[in-house]
Amino acid sequence: MPFGLYLHIPYCLAKCHYCDFYSRGGCKGVPEQYVDALVAQMHKFRENGTLPSHPDTLYFGGGTPSLLTPAQVKCLIDAAAPAQNAEVTLEANPETVTPALLEQFLYAGVNRLSLGVQTASNQSLQILGRPHTAAQSRAAFADAKRVGFTNISGDIMMALPNYSTEEFDQTLDLIAGGGATHISAYLLKIEENTVFGKRPPQNLPTEDQAADFYLYGVEQLSKAGFAQYEISNFSRPGFEGKHNLIYWNCQDYLGLGPAAHSCVKQQRFYWPNGTKQFIDRQSDPIPDGVCDGNDYIMLQLRLTSGLNLQKLKQLYQIEFTAKQKRFIANCQAAGYLLQNGDILSLTPAGMIIQNTILCELLSE
Ligand code: SF4
Question: What CATH number is given to the structural domain containing 360?
Protein backbone atom coordinates (compact mmCIF):
# COMPACT_ATOMS: atom_id res chain seq x y z
CA MET A 1 0.00 0.00 0.00
CA PRO A 2 1.51 3.39 -0.94
CA PHE A 3 2.46 5.84 1.81
CA GLY A 4 2.36 9.63 1.36
CA LEU A 5 4.34 12.30 3.21
CA TYR A 6 3.01 15.88 3.32
CA LEU A 7 5.16 18.80 4.46
CA HIS A 8 3.26 22.00 5.28
CA ILE A 9 5.02 25.30 4.57
CA PRO A 10 2.92 27.96 6.37
CA TYR A 11 4.54 31.06 4.82
CA CYS A 12 3.15 33.30 2.05
CA LEU A 13 4.12 36.58 0.42
CA ALA A 14 0.61 37.96 1.01
CA LYS A 15 -2.58 36.51 2.42
CA CYS A 16 -5.14 35.96 -0.37
CA HIS A 17 -8.59 37.33 0.43
CA TYR A 18 -10.35 33.95 0.25
CA CYS A 19 -7.74 31.79 1.96
CA ASP A 20 -8.38 29.95 5.22
CA PHE A 21 -5.36 27.64 5.00
CA TYR A 22 -3.02 27.89 7.94
CA SER A 23 -0.37 30.30 6.64
CA ARG A 24 1.00 33.76 7.35
CA GLY A 25 1.34 36.55 4.78
CA GLY A 26 4.20 39.07 4.56
CA CYS A 27 6.95 36.42 4.37
CA LYS A 28 9.82 36.52 1.88
CA GLY A 29 11.27 33.14 2.78
CA VAL A 30 11.16 30.18 5.15
CA PRO A 31 13.30 30.29 8.33
CA GLU A 32 15.99 27.62 8.64
CA GLN A 33 14.61 26.73 12.08
CA TYR A 34 11.32 25.67 10.46
CA VAL A 35 13.14 23.40 8.01
CA ASP A 36 15.13 21.96 10.94
CA ALA A 37 11.89 21.28 12.83
CA LEU A 38 10.43 19.39 9.84
CA VAL A 39 13.61 17.33 9.53
CA ALA A 40 13.56 16.55 13.27
CA GLN A 41 9.94 15.36 13.05
CA MET A 42 10.73 13.18 10.02
CA HIS A 43 13.48 11.48 12.05
CA LYS A 44 11.18 11.08 15.05
CA PHE A 45 8.34 9.52 13.03
CA ARG A 46 10.77 7.27 11.19
CA GLU A 47 12.28 6.05 14.46
CA ASN A 48 8.86 5.20 15.90
CA GLY A 49 7.97 3.26 12.75
CA THR A 50 5.24 5.59 11.45
CA LEU A 51 7.20 6.98 8.50
CA PRO A 52 8.56 4.28 6.17
CA SER A 53 12.20 4.49 5.04
CA HIS A 54 11.07 5.48 1.54
CA PRO A 55 7.60 7.09 1.19
CA ASP A 56 5.92 6.70 -2.22
CA THR A 57 4.90 10.34 -2.55
CA LEU A 58 6.20 13.59 -1.09
CA TYR A 59 4.09 16.73 -1.27
CA PHE A 60 5.22 20.26 -0.36
CA GLY A 61 1.98 22.14 0.32
CA GLY A 62 1.11 25.42 1.90
CA GLY A 63 1.24 28.20 2.27
CA THR A 64 3.75 28.84 -0.48
CA PRO A 65 6.40 26.10 -0.65
CA SER A 66 8.15 27.92 -3.53
CA LEU A 67 9.38 30.38 -0.87
CA LEU A 68 11.77 27.60 0.20
CA THR A 69 15.27 27.93 -1.26
CA PRO A 70 16.45 25.05 -3.48
CA ALA A 71 18.95 24.13 -0.73
CA GLN A 72 16.09 23.88 1.79
CA VAL A 73 14.04 21.77 -0.65
CA LYS A 74 17.02 19.47 -1.16
CA CYS A 75 17.59 19.14 2.58
CA LEU A 76 13.91 18.19 3.10
CA ILE A 77 13.92 15.71 0.20
CA ASP A 78 17.12 14.13 1.52
CA ALA A 79 15.55 13.72 4.95
CA ALA A 80 12.30 12.35 3.48
CA ALA A 81 14.22 9.88 1.27
CA PRO A 82 11.33 9.26 -1.13
CA ALA A 83 11.28 5.95 -3.01
CA GLN A 84 12.82 5.75 -6.46
CA ASN A 85 10.24 7.04 -8.96
CA ALA A 86 8.25 8.65 -6.11
CA GLU A 87 6.04 11.58 -7.08
CA VAL A 88 7.58 14.71 -5.49
CA THR A 89 5.26 17.71 -5.82
CA LEU A 90 5.95 21.32 -4.94
CA GLU A 91 3.20 23.94 -4.92
CA ALA A 92 4.50 27.16 -6.44
CA ASN A 93 3.05 30.61 -6.89
CA PRO A 94 3.82 32.24 -10.25
CA GLU A 95 5.32 35.43 -8.79
CA THR A 96 7.87 33.51 -6.70
CA VAL A 97 9.60 31.48 -9.41
CA THR A 98 12.38 32.29 -11.86
CA PRO A 99 13.89 29.97 -14.47
CA ALA A 100 17.00 29.51 -12.30
CA LEU A 101 14.94 28.66 -9.23
CA LEU A 102 12.77 26.19 -11.14
CA GLU A 103 15.84 24.49 -12.57
CA GLN A 104 17.29 24.12 -9.09
CA PHE A 105 14.02 22.74 -7.67
CA LEU A 106 14.08 20.13 -10.43
CA TYR A 107 17.72 19.36 -9.71
CA ALA A 108 16.91 19.04 -5.99
CA GLY A 109 14.44 16.22 -6.81
CA VAL A 110 11.06 17.89 -7.38
CA ASN A 111 9.41 16.15 -10.35
CA ARG A 112 5.91 17.64 -10.25
CA LEU A 113 5.02 21.31 -10.02
CA SER A 114 1.63 22.67 -9.02
CA LEU A 115 1.17 26.28 -10.13
CA GLY A 116 -1.42 28.47 -8.39
CA VAL A 117 -2.81 30.26 -11.45
CA GLN A 118 -6.50 30.60 -10.43
CA THR A 119 -7.57 32.90 -13.29
CA ALA A 120 -6.29 34.60 -16.43
CA SER A 121 -8.05 37.84 -15.50
CA ASN A 122 -5.76 40.40 -13.84
CA GLN A 123 -8.81 42.16 -12.46
CA SER A 124 -10.00 38.98 -10.74
CA LEU A 125 -6.48 38.28 -9.43
CA GLN A 126 -6.54 41.71 -7.81
CA ILE A 127 -9.96 41.11 -6.25
CA LEU A 128 -8.67 37.76 -4.89
CA GLY A 129 -5.63 39.51 -3.41
CA ARG A 130 -3.26 37.32 -5.45
CA PRO A 131 0.11 39.07 -5.83
CA HIS A 132 0.71 37.97 -9.44
CA THR A 133 -0.51 38.67 -12.96
CA ALA A 134 -1.67 36.37 -15.74
CA ALA A 135 1.57 37.16 -17.61
CA GLN A 136 3.56 35.82 -14.64
CA SER A 137 1.49 32.61 -14.70
CA ARG A 138 2.17 32.23 -18.42
CA ALA A 139 5.89 32.80 -17.86
CA ALA A 140 5.97 30.28 -14.99
CA PHE A 141 4.54 27.55 -17.27
CA ALA A 142 6.93 28.41 -20.09
CA ASP A 143 9.93 28.46 -17.73
CA ALA A 144 8.94 25.23 -15.99
CA LYS A 145 8.69 23.46 -19.34
CA ARG A 146 11.92 24.97 -20.61
CA VAL A 147 13.95 23.79 -17.61
CA GLY A 148 12.56 20.25 -17.99
CA PHE A 149 9.41 19.77 -15.88
CA THR A 150 7.17 17.25 -17.63
CA ASN A 151 4.45 16.99 -15.00
CA ILE A 152 2.83 20.35 -14.23
CA SER A 153 -0.51 21.04 -12.61
CA GLY A 154 -2.41 24.31 -12.68
CA ASP A 155 -5.24 25.54 -10.42
CA ILE A 156 -8.41 27.19 -11.71
CA MET A 157 -10.81 28.97 -9.37
CA MET A 158 -14.33 29.26 -10.78
CA ALA A 159 -17.39 31.36 -9.91
CA LEU A 160 -15.39 34.48 -9.03
CA PRO A 161 -17.09 37.90 -8.81
CA ASN A 162 -18.45 38.91 -12.26
CA TYR A 163 -17.47 35.44 -13.53
CA SER A 164 -18.13 34.41 -17.12
CA THR A 165 -17.53 31.34 -19.26
CA GLU A 166 -15.06 33.51 -21.23
CA GLU A 167 -12.95 33.94 -18.09
CA PHE A 168 -12.94 30.17 -17.63
CA ASP A 169 -11.97 29.62 -21.29
CA GLN A 170 -9.12 32.11 -21.10
CA THR A 171 -7.81 30.49 -17.91
CA LEU A 172 -8.04 27.00 -19.41
CA ASP A 173 -6.21 28.29 -22.51
CA LEU A 174 -3.43 29.71 -20.37
CA ILE A 175 -2.98 26.48 -18.40
CA ALA A 176 -3.55 23.89 -21.14
CA GLY A 177 -1.60 26.01 -23.65
CA GLY A 178 1.19 26.24 -21.06
CA GLY A 179 1.61 22.47 -21.22
CA ALA A 180 -0.23 21.35 -18.06
CA THR A 181 -0.67 17.62 -17.54
CA HIS A 182 -3.11 18.10 -14.65
CA ILE A 183 -5.67 20.71 -13.62
CA SER A 184 -7.43 21.30 -10.29
CA ALA A 185 -10.62 23.30 -10.84
CA TYR A 186 -12.80 24.33 -7.94
CA LEU A 187 -15.44 26.86 -6.97
CA LEU A 188 -14.65 29.92 -4.86
CA LYS A 189 -15.98 29.38 -1.34
CA ILE A 190 -16.41 32.22 1.09
CA GLU A 191 -14.89 31.08 4.39
CA GLU A 192 -15.24 32.71 7.79
CA ASN A 193 -12.10 34.39 9.12
CA THR A 194 -10.92 35.52 5.72
CA VAL A 195 -11.02 38.99 4.15
CA PHE A 196 -13.95 37.80 2.00
CA GLY A 197 -15.65 36.29 5.05
CA LYS A 198 -15.66 39.70 6.70
CA ARG A 199 -16.35 41.72 3.54
CA PRO A 200 -17.87 39.50 0.83
CA PRO A 201 -16.95 40.69 -2.68
CA GLN A 202 -19.66 42.16 -4.88
CA ASN A 203 -21.27 40.44 -7.86
CA LEU A 204 -20.68 36.88 -6.77
CA PRO A 205 -22.59 34.30 -8.84
CA THR A 206 -25.60 32.71 -7.14
CA GLU A 207 -25.34 29.04 -6.07
CA ASP A 208 -27.18 27.96 -9.22
CA GLN A 209 -24.91 30.03 -11.44
CA ALA A 210 -21.85 28.59 -9.67
CA ALA A 211 -23.17 25.06 -10.30
CA ASP A 212 -23.56 25.93 -13.99
CA PHE A 213 -19.98 27.22 -14.12
CA TYR A 214 -18.79 23.94 -12.56
CA LEU A 215 -20.66 21.84 -15.14
CA TYR A 216 -19.39 24.08 -17.94
CA GLY A 217 -15.84 23.69 -16.60
CA VAL A 218 -16.08 19.88 -16.45
CA GLU A 219 -17.27 19.80 -20.06
CA GLN A 220 -14.59 22.16 -21.37
CA LEU A 221 -11.84 20.32 -19.49
CA SER A 222 -12.98 17.04 -21.00
CA LYS A 223 -13.00 18.59 -24.51
CA ALA A 224 -9.46 19.83 -23.89
CA GLY A 225 -8.34 16.26 -23.04
CA PHE A 226 -8.36 16.48 -19.25
CA ALA A 227 -10.39 13.57 -17.90
CA GLN A 228 -12.11 14.09 -14.58
CA TYR A 229 -10.99 11.61 -11.92
CA GLU A 230 -12.13 13.48 -8.79
CA ILE A 231 -14.64 16.21 -7.99
CA SER A 232 -12.07 18.97 -8.57
CA ASN A 233 -9.27 17.16 -10.39
CA PHE A 234 -8.65 16.46 -14.06
CA SER A 235 -5.66 15.05 -15.88
CA ARG A 236 -4.12 13.88 -19.11
CA PRO A 237 -4.03 10.05 -19.16
CA GLY A 238 -1.57 8.73 -16.57
CA PHE A 239 -1.03 12.08 -14.84
CA GLU A 240 -3.49 11.74 -11.95
CA GLY A 241 -2.03 13.15 -8.73
CA LYS A 242 -0.65 10.13 -6.87
CA HIS A 243 -0.35 11.89 -3.52
CA ASN A 244 -3.95 13.07 -3.34
CA LEU A 245 -5.17 9.68 -4.54
CA ILE A 246 -3.67 8.29 -1.32
CA TYR A 247 -6.10 10.50 0.65
CA TRP A 248 -9.16 9.56 -1.39
CA ASN A 249 -8.28 5.86 -1.38
CA CYS A 250 -8.02 5.82 2.45
CA GLN A 251 -4.34 4.88 2.35
CA ASP A 252 -1.75 5.98 4.92
CA TYR A 253 -0.24 9.46 4.98
CA LEU A 254 1.71 11.53 7.44
CA GLY A 255 1.42 15.32 7.48
CA LEU A 256 4.07 17.39 9.25
CA GLY A 257 3.81 21.07 10.20
CA PRO A 258 1.18 23.18 11.97
CA ALA A 259 -2.39 22.29 10.90
CA ALA A 260 -1.19 19.27 8.90
CA HIS A 261 -3.42 16.17 9.07
CA SER A 262 -2.42 12.50 9.07
CA CYS A 263 -4.09 9.13 8.88
CA VAL A 264 -1.93 6.10 9.64
CA LYS A 265 -3.37 2.61 10.17
CA GLN A 266 -6.83 4.22 10.29
CA GLN A 267 -5.85 6.48 13.21
CA ARG A 268 -6.23 10.15 12.37
CA PHE A 269 -4.27 12.94 14.03
CA TYR A 270 -3.38 16.56 13.30
CA TRP A 271 -0.95 19.21 14.44
CA PRO A 272 -2.40 22.25 16.21
CA ASN A 273 -1.96 25.69 14.64
CA GLY A 274 1.14 27.54 15.82
CA THR A 275 4.31 27.75 13.75
CA LYS A 276 6.45 28.99 16.64
CA GLN A 277 5.34 26.11 18.84
CA PHE A 278 6.15 23.67 16.03
CA ILE A 279 9.62 25.20 15.62
CA ASP A 280 10.19 25.11 19.38
CA ARG A 281 9.06 21.44 19.49
CA GLN A 282 6.32 22.49 21.88
CA SER A 283 3.41 21.04 19.96
CA ASP A 284 2.36 17.43 19.61
CA PRO A 285 -0.11 15.83 17.22
CA ILE A 286 -3.70 15.66 18.50
CA PRO A 287 -5.66 12.39 18.03
CA ASP A 288 -8.63 12.89 15.72
CA GLY A 289 -10.55 9.62 15.85
CA VAL A 290 -10.62 6.59 13.64
CA CYS A 291 -11.13 6.58 9.88
CA ASP A 292 -14.27 4.45 9.43
CA GLY A 293 -16.71 3.18 6.81
CA ASN A 294 -18.40 6.58 6.52
CA ASP A 295 -15.06 8.20 5.66
CA TYR A 296 -14.51 5.47 3.08
CA ILE A 297 -17.91 6.14 1.46
CA MET A 298 -17.31 9.90 1.49
CA LEU A 299 -13.79 9.73 0.05
CA GLN A 300 -14.44 7.05 -2.58
CA LEU A 301 -17.48 8.93 -3.89
CA ARG A 302 -15.23 11.92 -4.60
CA LEU A 303 -13.58 9.78 -7.30
CA THR A 304 -15.11 9.07 -10.69
CA SER A 305 -13.90 5.46 -10.20
CA GLY A 306 -16.56 5.40 -7.45
CA LEU A 307 -17.39 3.30 -4.43
CA ASN A 308 -17.10 -0.48 -4.66
CA LEU A 309 -20.03 -1.88 -2.65
CA GLN A 310 -18.41 -5.33 -2.26
CA LYS A 311 -15.25 -3.75 -0.86
CA LEU A 312 -17.37 -1.60 1.49
CA LYS A 313 -18.95 -4.78 2.84
CA GLN A 314 -15.65 -6.64 3.12
CA LEU A 315 -13.72 -3.83 4.77
CA TYR A 316 -16.38 -2.24 6.99
CA GLN A 317 -19.31 -4.72 7.04
CA ILE A 318 -21.55 -1.97 5.67
CA GLU A 319 -24.47 -2.67 3.34
CA PHE A 320 -26.99 -0.04 2.29
CA THR A 321 -30.49 -0.44 3.75
CA ALA A 322 -33.61 -0.89 1.61
CA LYS A 323 -34.42 2.80 2.16
CA GLN A 324 -30.93 3.83 1.03
CA LYS A 325 -31.22 1.57 -2.04
CA ARG A 326 -34.48 3.31 -2.96
CA PHE A 327 -32.74 6.66 -2.54
CA ILE A 328 -29.89 5.47 -4.82
CA ALA A 329 -32.42 4.38 -7.46
CA ASN A 330 -34.10 7.81 -7.31
CA CYS A 331 -30.73 9.56 -7.64
CA GLN A 332 -29.92 7.38 -10.65
CA ALA A 333 -33.20 8.30 -12.28
CA ALA A 334 -32.51 11.99 -11.63
CA GLY A 335 -29.01 11.74 -13.16
CA TYR A 336 -27.01 12.23 -9.94
CA LEU A 337 -25.66 8.71 -9.42
CA LEU A 338 -24.51 5.86 -11.66
CA GLN A 339 -24.44 2.21 -10.68
CA ASN A 340 -22.47 -0.24 -12.73
CA GLY A 341 -22.47 -3.66 -11.05
CA ASP A 342 -20.90 -3.13 -7.63
CA ILE A 343 -19.59 0.34 -8.47
CA LEU A 344 -21.53 3.39 -7.38
CA SER A 345 -20.34 6.78 -8.62
CA LEU A 346 -21.51 10.37 -8.74
CA THR A 347 -22.14 12.15 -12.04
CA PRO A 348 -20.82 15.74 -12.34
CA ALA A 349 -24.34 16.95 -11.43
CA GLY A 350 -24.28 14.63 -8.39
CA MET A 351 -20.88 15.99 -7.36
CA ILE A 352 -22.45 19.43 -6.94
CA ILE A 353 -24.94 18.08 -4.42
CA GLN A 354 -22.58 15.52 -2.94
CA ASN A 355 -23.28 16.61 0.65
CA THR A 356 -27.03 16.14 0.29
CA ILE A 357 -26.49 12.66 -1.18
CA LEU A 358 -24.04 11.71 1.57
CA CYS A 359 -26.54 12.71 4.27
CA GLU A 360 -28.69 9.80 3.07
CA LEU A 361 -25.90 7.28 2.49
CA LEU A 362 -23.81 7.59 5.65
CA SER A 363 -24.61 5.37 8.62
CA GLU A 364 -25.59 6.97 11.91
S1 SF4 B 1 -0.78 31.74 -1.56
FE2 SF4 B 1 -2.11 29.94 -1.16
S3 SF4 B 1 -1.81 29.48 1.02
FE4 SF4 B 1 -0.95 31.53 0.65
S5 SF4 B 1 -2.61 32.90 1.19
FE6 SF4 B 1 -2.79 32.55 -1.02
S7 SF4 B 1 -4.18 30.78 -1.24
FE8 SF4 B 1 -3.52 30.87 0.91
Answer: 1.10.10
Q: Could you tell me the distance, in angstroms and rounded to a whole number, from the CA of residue 313 to the centre of ligand 1?
A: 40
Q: Residue 340: which domain range?
A: 306-364
Contact in structure between 91 and 67 (CB atoms under 8 Å): no
- The pTM (predicted TM-score) of the whole model is 0.97
The model's pLDDT over 96-105, given as tens digits with 9 standing for 90+, comes to: 999 999 999 9
Q: How many CB atoms lie within 10 A of CB 346?
A: 23
Domain end marker among 196, 219, 246: 246
Q: Above 80 in pLDDT, residue 285?
A: yes
Per-residue pLDDT of 215-251, as tens digits, reads: 999 999 999 999 999 999 999 999 999 999 999 999 9
Q: How far is the CA of 355 from the centre of ligand 1 (A)?
A: 26
Cα(12) to centroid of ligand 1, in Å? 6
HSE toward the beta carbon, residue 169, CA cutoff 13 A? 4
